[in-house]
Amino acid sequence: MARTAGIVVIGDEILSGKFADENAAFLIRELRQLGVDLRRITVIPDELDDIADTVARFAARFDLVFTSGGVGPTHDDVTIAGIAQGFGVAVHRHPELEAKVRGYWGAALADANLRLADVPEGAELVYGSDPTWPVPAFRNIYILPGVPALFRRKFAAIADRFRAAPITIARVFASADEGVLAPSLDAVVAAFADVKLGSYPRFDEREFKVILTLEGHDAARVSAAWAALVERLGALVVKTEAPAAAG
Amino acid sequence: MARTAGIVVIGDEILSGKFADENAAFLIRELRQLGVDLRRITVIPDELDDIADTVARFAARFDLVFTSGGVGPTHDDVTIAGIAQGFGVAVHRHPELEAKVRGYWGAALADANLRLADVPEGAELVYGSDPTWPVPAFRNIYILPGVPALFRRKFAAIADRFRAAPITIARVFASADEGVLAPSLDAVVAAFADVKLGSYPRFDEREFKVILTLEGHDAARVSAAWAALVERLGALVVKTEAPAAAG
Question: A30-33 — which CB contacts under 8 Å span 24+ positions?
Fold first, then answer.
């Protein structure tokens, strides 16, 4: 089964260049290995209306949505409120999370920390392989923290539930300009509509001018498209990489 | 004058992890130095309808829009057609670009290369500091190539026209949890609505627990907010960085 996904990165700090994105870059690789088709990444500010609108669109469009950031006890942590607004539900203090927050901070608990127990009403808690702290999921939206070490740990705990049909990829390195290759590529695309053919010119390589990639969930079709492309390009092929699992 | 911007990265190759994004990361830094407020980055597939819809939304919402990728002679280069569709105009072969394409390839010209002379009807050509090859601009959308070396070179040639009021940033490093800091942050946010206050917990530092940033286009207001925050946090301040030009 093919599954689609979208990533919403909530963070002024990324847009302003104060921190480089690590979470989308990490999730690109993880989803690829899981066989999930990532269809969109959007980085937006810490703003309620924008979060509400963006997550509602993503949730309607993709099978899986992952948010990064904007969860925490301070004024700029508005992801939970944004998701709630996007679906017209209230923000709800989850008793199970509240118990965890109180247990974690003990006597040092500040009032603001209790915001970490808030979820959009109707959210479920997904523990995966980590019994200590769950990931809140509202409908098909998995709500992950922005701090990269936490983001990675939490995603790793729940990753297995997203596994889909693996992606197969093959590569062909060609010695001609894209303009020369174009008619051959068009012919392969027409014959193999279910195989994605990418064409990437490179100007800093001596050995080849263009990297061509063929990929899809059906390994046999990727193999057939690869064979057809190699045959069509003939002497323009510098080297090839046979179909293999992506990731 | 404050100016807003959005970046649309068009590229299956980024979403699938075949290549890491370099262009958005580069543009984040450049726009910051120019004083432009980057408000959104979206990475989408090489798909006509998605490009059309996305660029139309961005163009209506931000002062400046930059697209990366999807320009070239092959089947997966559909950015020009996507922008044209988004605004209900035709794709037009620009005579000035066509002359450049023919001059560049000479006798080696493949038919497909002429697609590099196509623009959405009504686009203008922006040369900036590079007389050899212009950047097509349609309304407020600047159309840049996906190959990172070209993207950087072309943006550098036209960057000066985007210069806006510089951004000033100050930093405060605090020794307490975000939950403890939250009430103080709320007070500063309430008093300085025009200064953006960011709060970023870090779990791998010994010296401090949270990095706080204050930034805005009005240096005097950033300074005042910084002084107010430092005073309010008192002994929780480990170190500070005085207001300075961002970038």
Answer: A30/A155, A30/A159, A31/A5, A31/A162, A32/A167, A32/A246, A32/A247, A32/B16, A32/B17, A33/A246, A33/A247
Counted residue by residue, chain B has a size of 247
A137-178 pLDDT, tens digit per residue, is 999 999 999 999 999 999 999 999 999 989 999 999 999 999
pTM (2 d.p.):
0.96
Please identify, in words, the CATH class of the domain defined by B4-162.
alpha beta
Q: Which of A25, A105, A110 sits opposite B20 (nearest CB)?
A: A25
B178 with A112: Cβ contact below 8 A: yes
Rounded to whole angstroms, the Cα distance separating B215 from B168 reads 5
C-alpha to C-alpha distance for A74 and B179, rounded to whole angstroms: 7
CB contact under 8 A, B189 and A75: yes
Q: Can you give the three-state secondary structure of chain B, one letter per residue? A: CCCEEEEEEECHHHHCCCCCCCHHHHHHHHHHHHCCEEEEEEEECCCHHHHHHHHHHHHHHCCEEEEECCCCCCCCCCHHHHHHHHHCCCEEECHHHHHHHHHHHHHHCCHHHHHHHEEECCCEEECCCCCCCCEEEECCEEEECCCHHHHHHHHHHHHHHHCCCCCEEEEEEECCCHHHHHHHHHHHHHHCCCCEEEEEECCCCCCCCEEEEEEECCHHHHHHHHHHHHHHHHHHEEEEEEEEECC
Most B CBs within 10 A among A75, A168, A185, A202, hence the mutation to make, goes to A75
Place of tokens 């069509």: A232
User: Cβ–Cβ of B74/A185 closer than 8 Å?
Assistant: yes
**Second-level CATH architecture of B168-245:** 2-Layer Sandwich (3.30)
Chain B closest-CA separation from residue A123 CA (Å) = 23
What pLDDT digit, counting tens, does each position of A27-73 carry?
Answer: 999 999 999 999 999 999 999 999 999 999 999 999 999 999 999 99
Domain ranges within chain A, ordered by starting residue: 4-162, 168-245
